[in-house]
Specification:
CATH topology: TIM Barrel
Shape: globular
Structural class: alpha/beta
Largest sheet: 10 strands, mixed
Order of helices and strands: HEEEHEHEEEHEHEHHEHEHHEH
Distance between the termini: 41 Å
Radius of gyration: 21 Å
Number of strands: 12
CATH architecture: Alpha-Beta Barrel
CATH superfamily: Aldolase class I
Number of domains: 1
Helix content: 25-40%
CATH class: Alpha Beta
Strand content: 15-25%
């Protein structure tokens, strides 16, 4: 072996200090967005059955959750609303006194420096559970756009800092951008669910948002998981229509898409670490099969390494606590 020349890569792994000096990818609390579910009623703090430690919050109690988020230094939340009443056009999504609008007003009044993102969709507000207007069993694209723009404007009027449309209608970013600009909100960014696959990983979220479709599925508007080039076309369309951030959802099974969208767009990329990804980790951890902290940090690192600038994750509070422990 004396005459053999080879690289000694282990030199840079000799101690924790050296490893930290050459570490290429990092997770910071500023990278995280935390989802919050708000519901009608009072004195409601109810755990979502399929999502341990994720709760439905009524407005009189939600400040408990928001206070913890703020105290941990997480810079942003995304608000999902679960209304009491639903109809065929999801009118409570764009009502001035809808659950999301009321929550945003309250949160921004109490925490003006917290960035509040509004999920902009109709599915949890419609009695059929689809993300748009229905006629003869089909989701109509263009009539839905008007309602999405109306919803976005109402959310910004309530105080939302960023609009995050998740419906996957064609032209939804252009319609919302036009609606916001016409209403005088030219400076409000759009965080588009640009690449949203029709995924099996959404089950627990539909439990949380009460948004399962009453018939059929969402495969006519959410993307086929088999398609890569289509994802790039979708992202490019949203860029051209005025998006400011691009979301890839889900994250863990689509790291290749995150990398490609980041490389060709140069836009800020958001990885949505979705409910199914969260719940699988929680279930395995509760059974003692995995180390939850190590698994979560590793998978979030993979998203950052793939090109994500931000991560929308139900693990956000735990992640910040773990980072503080490690320091």
């Amino acid at each position: 072996m004396k005459d053999v020349t080879f690289r000694r890569h282990r030199r840079l792994r000799q101690s924790n200090t050296i490893r930290s000096m050459v570490r290429e990818t990092h997770i910071h609390k500023e990278d995280l967005i935390y989802p919050i579910f708000v519901v009608e009623g009072t004195n409601v703090k109810k755990e979502v059955p399929s999502m341990p430690n994720v709760f439905h919050w009524s407005l009189d109690l939600v400040d408990q959750e928001v206070e913890e988020v703020v105290s941990l230094g997480i810079p942003a939340i995304i608000v999902f609303g679960v209304p009491n009443s639903k109809d065929d056009v999801g009118s409570s999504a764009y009502h001035d006194h809808g659950i999301v609008q009321k929550a945003i007003r309250q949160i921004k009044e109490n925490h003006p420096d917290l960035t509040v993102i509004a999920d902009t969709c109709l599915c949890q507000f419609t009695d059929h559970g689809h993300c748009g207007v229905i006629e003869d069993g089909k989701v109509l694209n263009d009539p839905t756009l008007d309602l999405l723009a109306k919803t976005a404007v109402s959310q910004v009027e309530a105080g939302a800092d960023i609009i995050a449309p998740s419906n996957m209608m064609d032209g939804f970013v252009a319609a919302i951008r036009h609606g916001l600009d016409e209403a005088g909100y030219v400076d409000v960014p759009i965080m588009s669910y640009a690449v949203k696959f029709s995924s099996a990983f959404y089950g627990p979220f539909r439990d949380a948002a009460h948004s399962s479709p009453k018939f059929g599925d969402r495969k006519t508007y959410q993307m086929d998981p088999a398609n890569r080039l289509e994802a790039l076309r979708e992202a490019r369309s949203d860029m051209e229509e005025g998006a400011d951030f691009l979301i890839v959802k889900p994250a863990l099974s689509y790291l290749d898409i995150i990398r490609e969208v980041k490389d060709f767009s140069g836009f800020p990329i958001v990885a949505y670490n979705v409910s199914g990804e969260y719940s699988m980790v929680k279930a395995a951890s509760q059974n003692g099969w995995i180390n939850e902290k190590e698994i979560v940090l590793e998978k979030l690192l993979s998203m950052k390494r793939a090109g994500a600038d931000l991560i929308l994750t139900y693990h956000a509070k735990d992640v910040v606590k773990w980072l503080l422990e490690d320091k």
